[in-house]
Write a structure and sequence with these properties.
The strands form 2 sheets. Strands 3-4-5 form a 3-stranded mixed beta sheet. It has a two-stranded antiparallel sheet with strand order 1-2. It is an alpha+beta fold. It has one domain. The chain has 5 helices and 5 strands; from the N terminus they run αβααββαββα.
C-alpha cells in the first residue's frame, strides 16, 4: 500500500478495519490528518457531492481518483489545500 510505504504503518482499508468509517465514505484508515476516499471511475465523479458525503471532522477530506490510461489525481477543497500550504510555510518546509 502506498501510504504504508510513506510511513503510515497503520493504514488499512475501512472495509476491513472500520465499518463506521466505510459508511462515512472514507476508504482508508490510519492516514490522519487525511480522510481518503478512493475512486476508480472512467468518468470524473461530481467531486463536490463526493466531498459533501465525507465527514466534517478535524481531518482533511481528499478524493483519490484513478482513471484508466490518464493517471491519478487528488482532489480536495481549496480552503483545506491553502491551510496545508500555510502550515508548510509556517514550518519552513516550503
Amino acid at each position: 500500500m502506498e501510504f504504508q510505504l510513506m510511513g503510515f504503518k497503520d493504514t488499512l482499508t475501512s472495509r476491513y478495519a472500520d465499518r463506521k468509517r466505510d459508511d462515512e465514505k472514507v476508504d482508508l484508515v490510519g492516514t490522519e490528518p487525511l480522510n481518503i476516499q478512493c475512486k476508480a471511475w472512467k468518468a470524473a465523479p461530481n467531486y463536490h457531492k463526493e466531498l459533501d458525503k465525507m465527514p466534517r471532522d478535524l481531518n482533511y477530506n481528499c478524493i483519490f481518483h484513478k482513471r484508466p490510461r490518464q493517471g491519478d489525481v487528488v482532489v480536495m477543497r481549496k480552503k483545506d489545500f491553502y491551510e496545508i500550504l500555510k502550515m508548510l510555510k509556517a514550518s519552513d518546509i516550503i
